[in-house]
Design goal:
Length: 83
């Protein structure tokens, strides 16, 4: 079984919306946990920060390409709203 993850952190938005810098930090923290052999033990963790829509779509499709039914695939987007 292969364990793979795609983590997407979006902290920058269109004008008029406040940036969410914690989203990118949260993705980095989650990456460390997933890659830790004793905690997550993931074979591959890919991180995208503030990707354009085309890059994000490509990476999501690539994540699922060629996987077997026994593989663990984790797509995760992080956009955190904090007070």
């Amino acid at each position: 079984m292969t364990k793979v993850a795609l983590l997407i952190g979006v902290s920058e938005y269109a004008p008029g919306l406040n940036p969410l810098p914690a989203a990118v930090k949260d993705v980095a923290a989650l990456q460390r946990i997933l890659q830790d052999d004793e905690m997550g033990g993931f074979n591959e963790v890919k991180v995208l920060t503030n990707p354009d829509p085309q890059s994000m779509q490509y990476e999501i499709e690539t994540l699922f390409t060629g996987r077997s039914r026994d593989d663990l695939v984790l797509p995760k987007s992080v956009a955190v709203l904090r007070p």
